[in-house]
Amino acid sequence: MIQNLPNGNQIHIEDDRTGFDIETLKRAFSDNLFYIQGKFPEIATKNDFYMALAYTVRDRLLRRWLNSQQTYLKQDVKIVCYLSAEFLVGPHLGKNLINLGIADQVRQAVGECGLNLDDLIEQEEEPGLGNGGLGRLAACYMESLATQDIPAIGYGIRYEFGIFDQEICDGWQVEITDKWLRYGNPWEIPRTEASVEVGLGGYTESYYDEQNRYRVRWLPDRTIKGVPYDTPILGYKTNTANTLRLWKAEAPESFNFQAFNVGDYYGAVNQKTYSENITKVLYPNDEPIQGKQLRLEQQFFFVSCSLQDMIRIHLSKENSLDNFADKFAAQLNDTHPSVGVAELMRLLMDVHDLEWEQAWEITQKTFAYTNHTLLPEALEKWSLSLFGSLLPRHLEIIYEINHRFLNGIRTLYPDNPGKLSYFSLIDDSGEKYVRMAHLACVGSHAINGVAELHTELLKKDVLRGFYELWPQKFSNKTNGVTPRRWMVLSNPELTQLITSKIGDTWIKNLDELRSLEPFADDPAFREAWRQMKKQVKGRLAHRIQQRCGITVDPNYSLFDVQVKRIHEYKRQHLNVLHIITLYNRIKKNPNIDIVPRTFIFGGKAAPSYFMAKLIIKLINSVAEVVNNDPDVRGRLKVVFIPDYNVTNSQLVYPASDLSEQISTAGKEASGTGNMKFSLNGALTIGTLDGANVEIRQQVGEENFFLFGLKTDEVYQMKSQGYNPWEFYSSNGVLREVLDQISSGYFSPGDSNLFKPLVDSLLYHDEYLLLADYQSYIDCQDRVSEAYRDWDNWTRISILNTARMGKFSSDRAIREYCQDIWNASSVPVELEEYVQAKA
Ligand code: Z16
Fold first, then answer.
1. Residue in 372, 484, 604, 806 annotated catalytic
2. Known catalytic residue: 537?
3. 671 lines ligand 1 (CB under 6 A)
4. Which of 23, 36, 471, 615 is deepest in the core (most CB within 10 A)?
5. Closest residue by Cα to residue 162 from 739, 780, 646, 654
6. CA 818 – CA 798 distance, rounded (Å)
């Protein structure tokens, strides 16, 4: 590659940093081992080899990345800024090899060096910078944006410690600090020169500027430096590489210096520690967020850094902020970044001298808000006193937004004071709070849910008033997942089989999977599909043997899988009730003809969520009994895979026969695991919740195992005074199962262990397990019967994959671009030869 120097001369960038042929790759690999790791092969560790390979791949990314950034700088483009407190990107190496299209060459190159590519890929410590669905969605969206050549920046937080590693000790979850940066991170580049400063605390004062205009300024009592760390996100078989820009908090030098001047050396060092705390650790709670000060500091910190960065980029190209909203779209991934509404107002008014009206118009045109939850307890709110002491200027701005907003409400609903307290950005029914969802709704031009049902419920319930005010702001954007990671990378066997029939263009255009449909009736293809599934199940079985010491049978046993965060509304314990029901059938009749099943669980519990941790213990306790009972004769196996994360999940989805999506109807916003399973040919047992509804529509009712109460039936049952005890007393089989758990059958020596769990079911059962129990069991019996007919099961499995094209994140991103962001593709040229200057 030839590159221009500032003086007009040209240099060759060595082919070793760009070439794709095997000899070049080998040369680059050993060069990096020597010059970056400082090792020669004889003394190199596996990690050294991984690092050498990672740098080899990174070099090939950089050229595309810099070309992309240069293109965005030169051309008049609109940039999508995805603001998210979490990005659960997963390991980069394998993914980048796929997207560069060099997986085969690299496999051969490292093979010729006596190494195995999969071993090296496994060395990578995944960046666990998210809790679950929401963070993983952000990662899929970044990948699809790049694949479709949309200029985008993902803005977030570079947590030093991501989501904890989970170990299982004596059946209990134990949390271990995630030291993912321990051996360095070859995928990120710090951009210290683009650092920004963020204030916290202090007070505000008003003054008159030179034109004698009334102004307000914020005098924070602390300043934190935000240092961006950039990771290139390459699209699939395209030159576009966008930026994931994560902020790390540091102490500003100037502040330390001040402390030195007054001789307070220890104070300065303390301040440094204090500053760096902000991005230390990811809060490990997925849905109900606790109102901790440090969490609000994290949110404000990354949002302020990001908005300042956007303004800087804008002003480097344009001389005014008037058209800011035409050049940037800022998506709020849940309410976590919603303080950005007030911060953009402050930056535009206090720092860049705009008037309120113009600032407000720009703000509303810039932001859009995605809601991800229907759980009322998960809607974020911050106590007024905390918010005001940390962000006094923002509280003033929020009051002013609220004042103007409620004036409008008063005009619209003249004799209805109830409307004012309903809509207010401030909840003052008890202790006063700032309602972040209200701020996000008012400050955005678009509001969306993440599945059709979820959006309908937002309109009808959670955000009903806002929908009545502004119906045109609302739309649905059903979630999607990237087929590159969730099929091509994690399931090469499936990918190869599909491609052998319909070519490989489906990878970028997932609707093309439809052309597989006719092959569902082709006996040879079915046989190949079944063999493929067996092989993939074998890989997982092997891993389970290694990691858990449990032998499972990949050939005849149905792999029945529930992997997701542990939550009562997701009802992992309903699954357990089914396992115990089957176990009891065997105990009563050891020779019963039963379809062998392997129940596989995985998922983390929030460390402070007692009931979720007890559910993990229950799963492991039931596993202990069932796996070791000679009467069972291996026909049932229960496995809890520790430390469920992106890496482990890539092994799980491909190997699943049955996907458990059994949340209480109306509680799961969308789910995205449900899509990954079905794309990989698993059949689903599920309720009419979240995206399950649309998955069932797509694959066909006859190919989906539906059970349970519908959303309206759930509401109805609750409003009529649901009494779980009635189900307990009228259903002998259920009663036996619950009695066993509460009497200590699965907890020898500690008969009270699971009492809180059973009591919660008998006396509250907020998520209606008992009401859905019989329907679930009956449905599971239909699953088993269906599995006996292997050939038909395989046909349905093929149809599942063939009809899931809708759930590509490419489709979701196209919808966001059209309906919300008004963003379009900007192809990136890879200039092979640069013209010499005259
Ligand atoms: C999260 O992962 C989700 C919602 C939320 O409020 C907070 C977090 Cl950390 C999940 C939803 O539970 C899930 O249904 C949805 O598919 C996912 O967000 C992505 O939209």
1. 372
2. no
3. yes
4. 615
5. 646
6. 32
Cβ neighbours, 10 Å, residue 691: 29
Both tokens of residue 461? 């319930």
Nearest CA to ligand 1 atom 13: 671
How many whole angstroms from 369 Cα to the centroid of ligand 1? 14
Q: How confident is the model at residue 835 (pLDDT cuts 50, 70, 90)?
A: very low
Token digits for 540? 């997982």
Distance separating alpha carbons of residues 685 and 674, to the nearest angstrom: 10
Q: Cα 308 from chain centroid?
A: 25
Our answer to whether residue 27 is catalytic in this structure is no
Q: How many CA within 13 A on the CB side of residue 690?
A: 27
Cα(342)–Cα(346) distance, integer angstroms = 6
Burial category of 73 from C-beta neighbours within 10 Å (exposed 0-12, middle 13-18, buried 19 and up): exposed
User: Which of the following is catalytic: 314, 570, 617, 637?
Assistant: 570
CA–CA separation, 530 and 796 (whole Å): 12
Pairing, β 222-234 against β 426-427: unpaired
Q: Which residue among 131, 134, 331, 693 has the greatest number of ligand 1 atoms within 8 angstroms of its CB, and so is best to mutate?
A: 134
Please list the residues that pair with 599 across neighbouring strands. Answer: 560, 638
Expressed in percent and rounded to 5, the helix, strand and coil fractions of the chain are 55, 15, 30
Q: What is the crossing angle of helices 22-35 and 46-74, to 10°?
A: 110
Contact (Cβ atoms closer than 8 angstroms) between residue 586 and residue 632: yes
ipTM of the prediction: 0.99
Pair 127, 180: CB distance under 8 Å: yes
DSSP H helices, 686-723, are 692-699, 711-719
633 contacts: CB under 8 Å, gap ≥ 6: 590
What does the buried/exposed string (b/e) look like for 143-157 if buried means 16 or more CB atoms within 10 Å of the residue's CB? bbbbbbbbbbbbbbb
Quote the pLDDT of residue 4. Answer: 76
What integer is the mean pLDDT of 118-137? 98
Length of the chain counted residue by residue? 838
Mean pLDDT for 238-265 is 83
Q: How many CB atoms lie within 10 A of CB 819?
A: 14
Taking CB atoms within 8 Å and a gap of at least 24, the contacts of 189-194 are 189/229, 189/230, 189/231, 190/227, 190/228, 190/229, 190/230, 190/248, 191/227, 191/228, 191/229, 191/230, 191/245, 192/227, 194/228, 194/309, 194/312
Question: Each residue of 776-815: pLDDT tens digit?
Answer: 999 999 999 999 999 999 999 999 999 999 999 999 999 9
Give the model confidence (pLDDT) of 432-477 as tens digits. Answer: 999 999 999 999 999 999 999 999 999 999 999 999 999 999 999 9
CA 286, 287, 293, 295 torsion: positive or negative?
positive
766, with CB counted inside 10 A (0-12, 13-18, 19+), is middle
For the stretch 21-74, pLDDT in tens is 999 999 999 999 999 999 999 999 999 999 999 999 999 999 999 999 999 999
Strand-pair partners of 179: none
Three-class DSSP labels, 273-338: HHHHHCCCECCCCCCCCCCCHHHHHHHHHHHHHHHHHHHHHHHHHCCCCCCHHHHEEEEEECCCCC
Report the pLDDT value the prediction gives residue 531, as an integer from 0 to 100. Answer: 98
In short, whether 372's Cβ falls inside 6 Å of ligand 1 is yes
Residues 492 and 121: beta-carbon distance below 8 Å: no
Average pLDDT score, the chain: 96
pTM: 0.97
Tokens of 436: 């972040």
What the block records as the tokens of 612 is: 């979720």
Please give the DSSP secondary-structure letter assigned to residue 817.
I
Nearest to 560 by CA among 802, 793, 745, 757: 793
pLDDT at 724 over 70: yes
Ligand 1 closest atom vs CA 137: 19
26 is catalytic: no
Ligand 1 contact, 673 CB (< 6 A): no
Residues 547-576 pLDDT 10s: 999 999 999 999 999 999 999 999 999 999
| pLDDT value of residue 87 | 98
Whether 672 is catalytic is yes
